[in-house]
Amino acid sequence: MDIWHVRGGKKLSGACTVQGSKNASLPILAACVVSPLRAELTNVPRLRDVDAALRILRHLGCRAEQEGNEVYIDSTGLTRCDIPHALMEEMRSSVIFMGALLARCGEARLSLPGGCQLGRRPIDLHLAALRQLGAEIREEGSEIVCRGGRLRGARIELPFPSVGATENVLLAACAAEGETVLSGAAREPEIAALQEVLCAMGARIGGAGGDRITIDGMTPQREMRAKIPFDRIAASTLACAAAATGGDVELREVDAQQFSTVLYFLNRAGCDIILQNDRVRLIAPARLRGVGALSTAPFPGFPTDAQPVLMAALLKARGLTRITETIFENRFRQAPELRRLGADVRVEGRVAEIRGVESLRGASLTAGDLRGGAAMIVAGLAAEGETLVRDAGHVRRGYEEPDERLRALGAVIFTETDT
Question: What are the catalytic residues?
Answer without folding.
Answer: 116
